[in-house]
Amino acid sequence: MMVIINHFDKLTINFHRTTNGYRHSCPQSHIKKRGCMNNSIIIADPFHRYETKESAVIVAALAWVIIVGSTGLAAIIICGWRGAKSIELDWKNAKATFKCR
Amino acid sequence: MSAIAYNAGLISDDDKLRLSSGLIHKGSYIYDRANGASHQLSRFAVYIIEGLVEPIYWWQLRRRLQNRYLATETIQTVFNFLDSIGGLQVDRTRRSALNDLYYRANMKLHFVKVDKPSQRFEGDITGAIQAVIRAMRLTNILMLFTAIIAYGLNISVSTIVWVTITFYGCLLISTVVHELVHIYFVTREPRHCLYKPALLIRGSRIGVLHPTLDHKDELLSAVSGPVAGALVSILILPLSLLATLWFSWIIGISVAIFHLCSWMPGFSDGRVIWGFIQEARYATKT
């Protein structure tokens, strides 16, 4: 039997992958008494859940910077460093047009 | 040099390890102040955890554990557990950071996923600022590259400098406010007075680790955090009236949208809200 901890999200816990290490053969009643340590290194507290409030802001900002940077980089590759260039982005058709002058 | 691999990378001899603040070791238990959890430790786990109460170099801890004939697998298990709850603080030297980088690259080439190490910060203003600055490290490096690219695109140096500063400041302040709002909803409950929420970083992902809230508070917190962040970022809109900062409205609106992205189901704010909507729908149907 494994100690199952609910609601561990991406940010906090990778228990699913690491649970092997905490696996034990105690019945649930023993776990509740917290007295059984058969074959387990650590028994995670089954009564307290790890809740997180995770925000997407920095991940989204990172994606934004990568989009802006890669578009600029593409323009430099096509038109050269410091050369006169313009970029037209057609969001509707997901199309970018690079014009070198 | 001897190193140990665990889920979040490689720990080399020069790395200084310690338990994160907020984790208290007492006897055969480890107590987490963030949510009040008490994790039970085996005799072997106690040997490792008691060594981590004070900062210690890996080579010192390794020798100590070798004297107790502890298996590498046992040490890895404890490190993996600590990393999963953000309980292991690893201070790396440049050399060991390079070792870690090489290890990660090598693993990726072999299609093995290595987690990013988690790090805890105090759940207060200082901790929030430190956590956000830390989480923004990769964004900063890419912003610098983008600034160089923008120079190559013939954009004026003053515009590049101002865009970078405005974007960084707006993202930093609004994210700190976003996280502090989440912390406020935890600390305002008297029954949580013994707990101290912590900020947890894993790569660029940032979140607040806290005890379970009431259903209503959980929803309020999930809604208010992104809204507060978005409102703060919109505050910079009037700056676009200044000739040198005309682009501020683009940054303000973009960052506000980034905050509202937290309502996507892939993030915990979104999961709470969507879970609530689903429950409400189910209740209406039945």
How would you characterize the overall build of this protein?
The complex is a heterodimer of chains A (101) and B (286). Chain A has 2 domains: 1-54, no CATH class; 57-100, no CATH class. Chain A is 33% helix and 19% strand. Chain A is built from 3 helices and 4 strands. In chain A, strands 3-4 form a two-stranded antiparallel sheet. Chain A is elongated, with a radius of gyration of 26 Å. Chain A starts with 14 loop residues before the first helix and ends with a strand. Chain B has 286 residues and is an alpha+beta fold. Chain B folds into 2 domains: 4-115, Outer Surface Protein A, domain 3, CATH 3.90.930; 119-285, no CATH class. Chain B has helices at residues 43-51, 58-67, 72-84, 94-109, 125-135, 137-152, 157-187, 215-234, 248-260, 268-285; strands at 4-6, 9-11, 16-19, 23-26, 29-32, 38-41, 56-57, 88-91, 118-122, 198-202, 205-210. Chain B is globular, with a radius of gyration of 22 Å. The interface between A and B is large, with 49 and 77 residues. Strand 2 (51-55) of chain A pairs antiparallel with strand 11 of chain B.
What is the topology?
The complex is a heterodimer of chains A (101) and B (286).
Chain A lengths: L14 H4 L9 H6 L8 E2 L7 E5 L1 H23 L5 E6 L4 E6 L1
Antiparallel strand pairs in A: 3-4
Chain B lengths: L3 E3 L2 E3 L4 E4 L3 E4 L2 E4 L5 E4 L1 H9 L4 E2 H10 L4 H13 L3 E4 L2 H16 L8 E5 L2 H11 L1 H16 L4 H31 L10 E5 L2 E6 L4 H20 L13 H13 L7 H18 L1
Antiparallel strand pairs in B: 1-2, 3-7, 3-8, 4-5, 5-6, 9-10, 10-11
Helix pairs in contact in B: 5-7, 6-7, 7-8, 7-9, 8-9, 8-10
Descriptive tags:
heterodimer; A: 101 residues; alpha+beta; 3 helices; 4 strands; elongated; disordered N terminus; B: 286 residues; Outer Surface Protein A, domain 3; 2 domains; 10 helices; 11 strands; 55% helix; globular
The biggest beta sheet of chain A reads: 2 strands, antiparallel
Shape of chain B: globular
Helix-strand category of chain A: alpha+beta
Strand order of the largest sheet of chain A: 3-4
Radius of gyration of chain B in whole Å, from Cα? 22 Å
Radius of gyration of chain A: 26 Å
Instruction: Give the uncertain stretches of chain B in residue-range form.
Output: none
**Oligomer designation:** heterodimer
Number of E-state strands of chain B = 11
H/E order of the elements of chain A? HHEEHEE
Helix content of chain A: 25-40%
Mean pLDDT of chain B: 91
Overall outline of chain A: elongated
Quick one: how many beta strands of chain A? 4
Count of folded domains of chain B: 2
**Total domains of chain A:** 2
In terms of structural class, how would the helical and strand content of chain B be classed?
alpha+beta
